[in-house]
């Protein structure tokens, strides 16, 4: 394994399979993603796109094979080291996962508070990111008073605010019209230009693909095609 190790790889999968009961959601996936790549993961509903993202930040454990993130082997990582792993990731969840009792501002600020940033820095940074995602005016709103597309933009803001080295975005434009979708992609593109590794999972790629250069990984029935 080591002889093939590419120094620029930030994500490596070796023969990874994932089983949920009787369902093999991922079948023998091998993958090598370089630092700073912009990757689209495409494939139909149920193909395994979300599962693939989930094994990267160890929300799910693999059934077989190995996952290396920045050289860390996830099958050997102890639960005390999980926060260290997860700090590398900014994640846009398919179902957003905003905290309903916190305002838009507080949901996004939480990331920076957990990282121990100063209040003055947090205020400036959170408002800047909310403004660029078009959510500046909704900073005081509670998530459930927002439209689906607005919640999605807050989820994107939260994923990027900590300037993680890897952004995983699961259907980040599913609730947006084509113009708002393009704006979110352009926004993510800015982070790509700064060197962030970005993985976007989407079953609706035709909207996005022609506008942005990136590598597309197509999965179907748990396999890379
Ligand atoms: N927690 C779970 N328990 C049981 N089966 C699961 C679980 N999570 C995913 N699966 C199954 O694994 C397969 C892949 O699911 P996954 O969510 O990765 O698909 P997807 O490509 O993200 O689909 P979509 O485009 O609809 O989001 C599906 O057959 C799904 O039913
Ligand atoms: Mg999914």
Protein traits:
binds magnesium ion; 10 strands; 27% strand; 6-stranded mixed sheet; binds adenosine-5'-triphosphate; alpha/beta; 4-stranded antiparallel sheet; single chain; 225 residues
Plain-language structure description:
By secondary structure, the chain is of the alpha/beta class. The protein has helices at 49-56, 82-86, 104-114, 119-132, 148-160, 178-193, 206-209, and strands at residues 9-20, 23-34, 38-42, 64-69, 72-73, 89-92, 166-170, 197-202, 215-220, 223-224. Helix 3 (104-114) packs parallel to helix 5. It is globular, with a radius of gyration of 17 Å. The model has no long low-confidence stretch (mean pLDDT 92). Adenosine-5'-triphosphate binds at residues 20, 23, 25, 43, 45-51, 94, 203.
Bound molecules: adenosine-5'-triphosphate, magnesium ion
The topology string of helices and strands comes to EEEHEEHEHHHEHEHEE
Q: Helical stretch count?
A: 7
Shape: globular
Number of beta strands: 10
- Pairing-aware structural class of the strands and helices? alpha/beta
Q: Mind telling me the C-alpha Rg?
A: 17 Å
Relative helix content: 25-40%
> What are the low-pLDDT stretches, counting only 5+ consecutive residues below 50?
none
Relative strand content: 25-35%
| Mean of residue pLDDT values | 92
Largest sheet: 6 strands, mixed
- N-end to C-end Cα span: 23 Å
Query: Which strand order do you get reading across the main beta sheet?
Result: 6-7-8-3-9-10
């Amino acid at each position: 394994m080591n002889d093939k190790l590419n120094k620029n790889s930030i994500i490596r999968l070796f023969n990874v399979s994932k089983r949920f009961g009787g369902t093999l959601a991922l079948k023998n996936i091998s993958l090598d993603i370089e630092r700073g790549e912009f990757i689209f993961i495409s494939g139909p509903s149920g193909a395994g796109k979300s599962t693939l993202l989930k094994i990267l930040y160890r929300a799910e454990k693999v059934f077989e094979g190995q996952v290396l993130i920045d050289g860390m082997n996830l099958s050997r990582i102890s639960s005390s080291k999980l926060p260290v792993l997860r700090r590398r990731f900014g994640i846009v969840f398919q179902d957003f996962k905003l905290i309903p009792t916190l305002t838009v501002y507080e949901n996004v600020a939480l990331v920076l508070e957990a990282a121990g940033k100063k209040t003055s820095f947090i205020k400036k940074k959170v408002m800047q990111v909310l403004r660029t995602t078009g959510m500046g005016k909704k900073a005081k709103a509670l998530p459930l008073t927002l439209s689906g597309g607005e919640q999605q933009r807050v989820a994107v803001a939260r994923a990027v605010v900590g300037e993680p080295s890897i952004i995983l975005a699961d259907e980040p434009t599913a609730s947006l019209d084509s113009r708002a979708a393009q704006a979110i992609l352009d926004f993510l593109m800015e982070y790509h230009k700064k060197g962030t590794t970005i993985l976007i999972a989407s079953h609706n790629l035709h909207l996005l693909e022609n506008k942005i250069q990136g590598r597309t990984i197509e999965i179907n029935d748990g396999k890379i095609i």
